Amino acid sequence: MNRIKVKYEEIISVDNLICADMIIRTRNDYSYGVAEFDKDYYGNIYQLHLDLINQTYIHSGYHTFHTTGSDNKRRLIHVCANYRDRIVQKALIIATKPYLVNRFVGNTYSSIPGRGAHKAIKKIKQVVYHNPINVLQLDIYHFFHEIDQACMANILSSNFKDRHIVWLCEAMMIAVDKGLVLGAEDSQWHANMYLTGIDHMILKECKPDHYFRYCDDLVLIDDSADKLKQSMKNIEEYMTTIKMQLKPSKRIFKLAEKRRMKGESGVGEGLDFLGYVFYQNHTDLRSSTKNRWRRRLHVLNRTPADAEISKQDIVARGALIGLLKHCNSKNLIKKWNNEYPNYFERLRRAEAKKSAAAKQKKEQLETLLEQTKRAS
What we know:
By secondary structure, the protein is an alpha+beta fold. 55% of the residues lie in helices and 12% in strands. It has helices at 8-12, 14-24, 32-38, 41-53, 83-101, 117-128, 143-146, 149-159, 163-173, 185-206, 225-241, 287-300, 311-324, 330-339, 341-375, and strands spanning 62-68, 74-80, 108-109, 134-139, 210-214, 217-222, 251-254, 271-273, 276-278, 283-285. It has a five-stranded mixed beta sheet with strand order 3-5-6-4-7, sandwiched between helices. Strands 8-9-10 form a three-stranded antiparallel beta sheet. Strands 1-2 form a two-stranded antiparallel sheet. The termini are far apart. 24% of the residues are buried.
């Protein structure tokens, strides 16, 4: 594969650094880092430019905090301690993103423009609906934390022709002792680069009917279970070359036609991926996600039904619509309407009030137009 020929000078140019700064500050105008940087804006930009030219730039490290994601996993997030480090990260991505996207195989998702979770869900539905198939599902053990920095440096060298770009990537990478950090934009792209080799290996050697990867979650789909067993062996062997391990939860199973009720027998099981459970005939919301939303709706339901709708109500409504529109949720919505009547009544009242106001405004406009027409 030919190496990327983007030049280091393009990344560290003053124009590119200012462009990166303007993109970052759109949502950070009042943050401490921006305010401090603005005290001598052009002086700081030029000094950063000089540090990058002379390769005296040193990453200032990270502030860290823990957060719990939608999958209830507790993760350590890193945020740049110095605002200028964020500018360098963004400048690097601006210059290299068009070239990197072309290197990622079609059905890889996460942190790639136009390839988010929603598109992955849509593609999976097209594949699994009404098709009796076998599935190999794999997950990489502590992916970001276990990435080998020396191996990552070799991958960077094999992808970028300009050695100065490799130096800059390594300067940001070695700000932590091990792996890549969660929260840094460049880490997301480097993580995809780290697994691009296994993507190509799977497509060229394993040759499954369908292949999907979302960050460190891999799904191979094929009619033959034996073919998937051999694919698992090939993937495990390749993982040793990049010093990674698969989780013990790796498995091969036949996709079930539908979700079975308690005590009901049948063949196969659902594909639990991206927060949903996919079957041949329908898609369910993951049980842990349902339970999390039940707890949230229970709190919102404590407010009386005749109270004014709040910001929390509106935020929850938008999130719920975005979540349920990707699965078969008609019965679930009916059930939650009965369990949490106060919350959904407030939503109905607000929607009716909004519709009445829109209708009144339309009638007033029609009346005004009619009067104007008669006057003319």
